[in-house]
Amino acid sequence: MPFLKKEKSWELVQELLVKMSGNEITGWITTVNVGEICYMISRKSSANQADLAIEALLNFPINIIEADLKLALQAAKLKATYKLSYADAFAAVLTISKKAVLLTGDQEFLNLKDEKDFEVQFID
Hints:
By secondary structure, this protein is mostly helical. The protein has one domain (9-122): 5'-nuclease (Rossmann fold, 3-Layer(aba) Sandwich). The chain contains 6 helices and 4 strands; from the N terminus they run ααβααβααββ. It has a two-stranded parallel ribbon with strand order 1-2. A two-stranded parallel ribbon has the order 3-4. Helix 3 packs antiparallel against helix 4 (47-59) and helix 5 (69-81) packs across helix 6. The radius of gyration is 14 Å and the shape is globular. The N and C termini lie close together (11 Å). The model has no long low-confidence stretch (mean pLDDT 91).
């Protein structure tokens, strides 16, 4: 999460969060992707840092979408079609269903360039 560590592109993330707070835009994330953030920070840093990051995330003006059976099956079908991780498939399916733009630094999403209604904006 670039914003929490003030890594490259954190200003863009901050700008989007401000717009979400002002109801100018809406943001979404799945519970699977929240879990992914947690394990990645735990592995790269510590469980304590992961807990702090998730606590901060829960205070962001972002809608957390439960990964129900419908979402899981859509993600499975997308993963079966494209080379991407299962967690990334959840993010992609959510992006498509919300007609949103996925904000990511993960170049794996280039594999979905031909997917109808999928839009991605890469950050460094």
